[in-house]
Each structure stands twice: as C-alpha cells, then as structure tokens.
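note to self: dont lose this again. the chain is below, predicted strucutre after it. 175 aa total, dont forget to put it in the shared folder this time
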Amino acid sequence: ALSIATRPDCLGKDVLCLIEELCKIKPVFIELGLQTIHEESAQYIRRGYPLSCFNEAVDDLKKVGANVVVHLIMGLPNESKEQMLESVKYVASKDINGVKLHLLHVLKNTDLATEYEQNKFATLTKEEYYSIIADAIEILPKKVVIHRLTGDAPKKLLIAPAWSANKKDVLNGMK
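---
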C-alpha cells in the first residue's frame, strides 16, 4: 500500500489523476489534516482552508478510489469536549476509512507556547483526554479504522501537557 499525508487544498486535478492511477496498482491511503470542524479554531491554528474544501477533497478522493484517513486534534485552545466530539461525529458521517486522533502538544518556540505561557488556555489533563478518546471510539463506526489514539512530540520541545511525554504510558492507561 501507499500512504500519503497532505492537505485537502493540495489536491488539484493533476494530483487526483495521479492518485487514481496509483489506486489501480495498489491500495492508496490519503491522510487529510482536518484537525477540527470549527472555523474559529481552524482560523486560530491557521489551518488555511474552509471545511467545504475538506468535504470536496473527501468526495474527490473517494471517486478516484482512494482510502481516506482523517487527522483530528483533541484539546485545541478554547474547544469544549462537546466541540471536539462534534468534529468526531462529523468525520464519522463522511465516507472515510480511518482516523488519527491526536492530543494537542504545546511546543517550544511557537506562538502557541507564548499564549500557553500567558495562561490564555489550558491543556487537557490525562483523565480529560481519556474521556474524550473513549467517547470518540463510541461515536466512530466500526468500519472506520482508528490508526492513532495519541501522538508524541519531541521531548526536548514539549512544554505541555507534560504527562504526554511517555506515549507508552499514555496508551497503557487507556481502558
């Protein structure tokens, strides 16, 4: 199989034609970084494209025979648990094949780090993250493969949440 991670706004007709040809040779997985369905959050993280672009990309990719895997970030600043789960419900309603669930990581030397240090937002606790992930798993259809339950950041760059530094511990703590 072939796996390609990209943005929904990078799938021009020429790229879709190439993906269609590749799908005739082997299974192709296209990973799309959606992160959230909420436009205010999308603007905050400078996602750079509207939700409609994501929708069009999913439709186009399915037409050419690609498998679609969507990335979501849990714990974006100022998003409630309900909003995070709305993003999960939204992608669950789409014709996707998989999802990668990520925890927001605050990294050194970023605008996000500056805002975190100014106490403009808090990161999720381990218990909050586990609760969100458990609810997300319940929402996702059984046919959707969960490719990731959390990510990991370079420990030298990680500011918060500190508990996420040991990915094995995080995964082992999920029940």
